[in-house]
Amino acid sequence: MAIEARIRELDSRHETLERAIQDEANRPAADELRLRELKRRKLKLKEELEMLKGRVH
Predict the structure, then answer these.
(1) Which are the contacts of 39, defined by CB distance < 8 A and separation ≥ 6?
(2) What is the value of pTM for the model shown?
(3) Are 52 and 3 in contact (CB under 8 A)?
(4) DSSP at 27
(5) Domain locations in the chain?
(6) Residue 26 CA: distances (Å) to CA of 7, 22, 23, 57
(7) pLDDT tens across the length of the chain (57 residues)
């Protein structure tokens, strides 16, 4: 059960990062450094999610 809770938490954080990326990208003067950092964090979460989901199935 703990793995499923962690997956839900990471899914939520992944969605939050996706919204932050979209918000930053839609700004007139988007901060490329911030975008790069947000995308890096999102990718790291995605990798962890895939690993955890593989352990559940």
Answers:
(1) 21
(2) 0.86
(3) yes
(4) S
(5) 2-56
(6) 28, 6, 5, 37
(7) 699 999 999 999 999 999 999 999 999 999 999 999 999 999 999 999 999 999 887
